């Protein structure tokens, strides 16, 4: 079997598996909440791995190993920041967001903010929904560009054909199966990424002759590989670490928190998710080191201009054709998992936040699902039009969008969950100021400081100051806040004792702030 044939077979198997999962999820999607949030029935493993896969994209298998290959572990500060940020996000945001969105009956981040803040003007919900729509349309487009480029470089396929294949398969399983399909395919894709990133450095280590040969080869090529600072200044390292701030405001990631079966399962999901991240990041570092040593000894060649392909080239040398094909599929999985998550979040933002805020929410379960699917298709087509021309500006927007979402939504989500006195005016001021600061700072690149830092700080201050000026007590809001806190921190036994059942439905609060669940 030729290398190309084996890789093609692996790709076909992968695509078919993704479509089958989508068709399975279709049979379990009965209403709009199912389509957008999977009926709040994700187990911790699916939630954790799908969040990780939706987050990391091709950066984990191509960008990070390539940067480490060229410059050493100084490029790993961004991975440290992301891992720390993800852990804090699961610890601080996940359980309370899960419980609070249940209490106020919300299935998207903007609708949660609108309900939590009693925004009768609907400005918070609409503005947040539009921010998501605009940024994610370009974000999805960049993923399609990456998919087309992947097929072009790996198989010599025409860019437009590769882009169309990626877009078609992702849209198909997202369109048909909704959130459940996206989450389960993301879980499978996350496992593929992890297995690939663990196997390449382990098998590569054996191929080059063990740890001694690895250390000698890396040191001979780059004696400063293990230098934590690598000649970089403090601002560079702080900016890389600050990527972790972005997690609190990424809608396609925190929506997994809302879909957990219960707030208490966030703890298990956190352990699984962070374990996955640590192993994956270590695998990316190991892949870079193995590639450096292999190039030094002439076992297989990875030129500096091929740095981002070190994972691909190593896998093709180390494994039989069909296994190498699944290694390539892992990269495609990383790209597709991000696209599908962003498509669904964009669709939910339009249906639930823009249409619902204007009183046009679909009236029936069937019409709601149909509307959601139409929006998925429309956004995909719009993104594909941008991707067709493969402009650099779209790809550059990916890093900018991470900062934009992190600064616009991150401080507001944290304040909404932990501060009773946040007002809709404060939230609106924070979102707008965070987005504007990121835009301006990102344009001028002042002090070479990553724009998420000033954006996050200004948004936090604006939300706090404006809320202080506009706050008026609201007993109903305070009861909901207290109920959400108890629900997020209570043990399973305490939930059973107070609320009557561990399985949560959509509650209407009692006057004393308790949640009236039926007895077992």
Key terms for this structure?
75% helix, 20 helices, 520 residues
What is this structure, in a nutshell?
This protein has 520 residues and is mainly α. The chain has 20 helices and no strands.
Question: Could you explain the architecture of this structure?
Answer:
The protein has helices spanning 3-26, 32-37, 44-56, 63-71, 77-103, 109-116, 123-155, 159-208, 211-221, 234-241, 251-258, 266-297, 310-318, 321-357, 365-388, 392-418, 424-444, 452-470, 475-489, 492-499. With 520 residues, it is mostly helical. It is globular and about 70 Å long.
Number of strands: 0
> From N to C, what is the helix and strand string?
HHHHHHHHHHHHHHHHHHHH
| Relative strand content | under 5%
Would you identify the regions where 5 or more consecutive residues have pLDDT less than 50? 500-508, 515-520
Shape: globular
Average pLDDT confidence is 85
Largest sheet: none
Q: How much helicity do the residues have?
A: over 70%
Distance separating the two termini: 59 Å
How many H/I helical runs? 20
Structural class: mainly alpha
Radius of gyration: 23 Å
């Amino acid at each position: 079997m030729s290398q190309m044939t084996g890789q093609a077979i692996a790709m076909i198997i992968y695509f078919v598996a993704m479509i089958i999962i989508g068709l399975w999820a279709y049979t379990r999607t009965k209403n709009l909440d199912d389509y957008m949030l999977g009926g709040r029935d994700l187990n911790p493993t699916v939630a954790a791995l799908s969040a990780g896969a939706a987050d990391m994209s091709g950066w984990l298998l191509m960008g990070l190993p390539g940067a480490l290959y060229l410059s050493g572990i100084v490029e790993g500060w961004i991975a440290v920041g992301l891992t720390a940020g993800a852990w804090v996000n699961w610890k601080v945001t996940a359980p309370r967001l899960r419980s609070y969105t249940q209490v106020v009956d919300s299935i998207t981040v903007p609708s949660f903010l609108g309900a939590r803040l009693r925004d009768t003007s609907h400005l918070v919900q609409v503005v947040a929904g539009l921010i998501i729509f605009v940024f994610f349309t370009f974000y999805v487009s960049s993923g399609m560009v990456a998919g087309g480029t992947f097929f072009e470089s790996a198989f010599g396929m025409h860019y437009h054909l590769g882009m169309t294949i990626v877009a078609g398969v992702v849209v198909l399983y997202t369109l048909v199966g909704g959130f459940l399909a996206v989450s389960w395919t993301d879980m499978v894709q996350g496992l593929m990424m992890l297995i690939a990133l663990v196997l390449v450095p382990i098998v590569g280590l054996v191929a080059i002759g063990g740890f001694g040969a690895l250390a000698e080869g890396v040191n001979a090529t780059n004696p400063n590989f293990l230098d934590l600072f690598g000649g970089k200044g403090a601002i560079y390292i702080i900016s890389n670490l600050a990527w972790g701030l972005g997690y609190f405001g990424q809608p396609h990631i925190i929506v997994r928190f809302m879909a957990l079966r219960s707030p208490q399962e966030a703890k298990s999901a956190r352990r699984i998710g962070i374990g996955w991240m640590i192993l994956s990041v270590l695998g990316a570092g190991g892949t870079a080191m193995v590639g450096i040593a292999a190039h030094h000894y002439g076992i297989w060649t990875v030129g500096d201009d091929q740095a981002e392909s070190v994972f691909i080239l190593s896998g093709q040398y180390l494994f039989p054709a069909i296994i190498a094909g699944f290694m390539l599929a892992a990269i495609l999985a990383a790209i597709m998992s991000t696209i599908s998550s962003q498509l669904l979040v964009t669709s939910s933002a339009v249906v639930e936040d823009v249409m619902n805020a204007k009183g046009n929410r679909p009236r029936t379960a069937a019409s709601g699902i149909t509307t959601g699917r139409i929006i998925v298709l429309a956004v995909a087509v719009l993104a594909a039009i941008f991707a067709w021309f493969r402009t650099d500006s779209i790809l550059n927007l990916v890093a900018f969008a991470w900062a934009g979402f992190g600064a616009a939504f991150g401080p507001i989500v944290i304040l909404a969950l932990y501060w009773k006195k946040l007002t809709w005016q404060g939230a609106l001021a924070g979102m707008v100021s965070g987005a504007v600061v990121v835009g301006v700072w990102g344009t001028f690149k002042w002090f070479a400081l990553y724009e998420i830092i000033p954006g996050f700080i200004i948004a936090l201050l604006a939300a706090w100051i404006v809320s202080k000026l506009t706050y008026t007590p609201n007993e109903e809001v305070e009861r909901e806040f207290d109920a959400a806190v108890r629900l997020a921190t209570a043990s399973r036994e305490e939930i059973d004792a107070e609320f009557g059942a561990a399985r949560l439905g959509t509650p209407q609060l009692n006057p004393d702030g308790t949640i009236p669940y039926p007895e077992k």
